[in-house]
């Protein structure tokens, strides 16, 4: 079995609440688009404590190819985000955020603090670094701050590499990648997807409408992902 699928299946057995109460580990998400990138970096993704299946197409593909039923879980307000931030606010857990541009992360933090009363965002900064040394220095800084929860949104591969750097530097809290969540939160407050969009499984269509730059990769997912997914299933490559 693919190490990526194996990790997704094992992660699906845990509830978000169990993960949060466990207090330690780094977790990321794969959708049909990012799955194609992850195939080129299997060792990186295998280093994570958990991988969530993000996207209805990936969930269906796993069901068809492996006969396994997994839940669609994303770091957005339709899934993990409200659970994570509500838990942090209620239990007094501190949160650090590294994501998007500085102006956007500042707006997102303000919106999150309005939405989740008592939320302690102890540190935040943009997700852009000049080089490896600055990333290493930032990883050490985060470890020294001891945030209970770390949210990282820097785009596929970069965010995983950075979160792994933080763990390797000695971080002992819970870390999640979040893709474009912080950027979205800065633009439209905490709620990005309308209820009717989530209810009818039209999240990718809505995002294509809201963010034209995503259209190319969603088309890629629709046509390339099914073929590549089955090829990996049959060949292990």
Automatic annotation (TrEMBL):
Pfam name, any one: Glyco_tran_WecG
Domain of life: Bacteria
Record keywords: Glycosyltransferase, Transferase
CDD domains according to UniProt: Glyco_transf_WecG_TagA (cd06533)
One Gene Ontology MF term: hexosyltransferase activity
Protein's name in the database: WecB/TagA/CpsF family glycosyltransferase
Organism field: Hallella mizrahii
């Amino acid at each position: 079995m693919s190490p990526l699928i194996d990790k997704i299946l094992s992660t699906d057995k845990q509830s978000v609440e169990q993960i949060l109460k466990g207090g330690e580990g780094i977790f990321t998400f794969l959708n049909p688009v990012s799955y194609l990138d992850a195939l080129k970096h299997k060792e990186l993704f295998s280093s994570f404590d958990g991988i969530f299946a993000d996207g209805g197409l990936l969930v269906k593909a796993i069901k068809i190819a492996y006969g396994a039923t997994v839940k669609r879980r994303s770091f957005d307000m339709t899934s993990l985000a409200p659970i994570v931030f509500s838990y942090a606010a209620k239990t007094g857990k501190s949160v650090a955020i590294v994501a998007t541009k500085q102006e956007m992360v500042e707006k997102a933090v303000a919106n999150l603090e309005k939405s989740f009363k008592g939320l302690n965002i102890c540190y935040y900064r943009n997700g852009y670094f000049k080089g490896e040394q600055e990333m290493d220095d930032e990883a050490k800084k985060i470890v020294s701050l001891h945030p209970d929860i770390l949210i990282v949104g820097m785009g596929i591969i970069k965010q995983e590499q950075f979160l792994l750097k933080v763990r390797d530097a000695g971080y002992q809290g819970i870390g999640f990648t979040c893709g474009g969540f912080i950027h979205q939160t800065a633009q439209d407050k905490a709620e990005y997807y309308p209820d009717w969009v989530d209810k009818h499984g039209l999240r990718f269509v809505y995002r294509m409408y809201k963010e034209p730059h995503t259209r190319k990769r969603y088309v890629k997912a629709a046509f390339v992902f099914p073929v590549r997914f089955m090829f990996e299933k049959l060949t292990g490559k």
